[in-house]
Amino acid sequence: MGIDRAKVDALLARAKREVDDGLLPSVQIALAYRGEVVASEAYGDATVDSRYAVFSCTKAFVAAAVWALIGDGTVDVSRPVVDYVPEFGTNGKEVVTLEQVMLHTAGFPHAPLGPPNWATVEGRLAAFAKWRLSWAPGSTWEYHATSAHWVLAEVIRRVTGRDHGDVVAERVTGPIGLPRVLGLPAGPAQDGILDVVAVGERASADELRAAFGVDELPTTEVTPEAILGFNRPEARAVGVPGGGAFLRAADLALFYQGLLHNHGSAWRPDVLADATGTVRNTLPERLTGLPANRSLGLVLAGGDGRSAERGFGRTVSPRAFGHNGAGGQLAWADPATGLSLGYCTNGYDLHEVRQPRRGSAIGSLAAVCAT
Question: What is the mean pLDDT of the chain?
Answer without folding.
Answer: 95
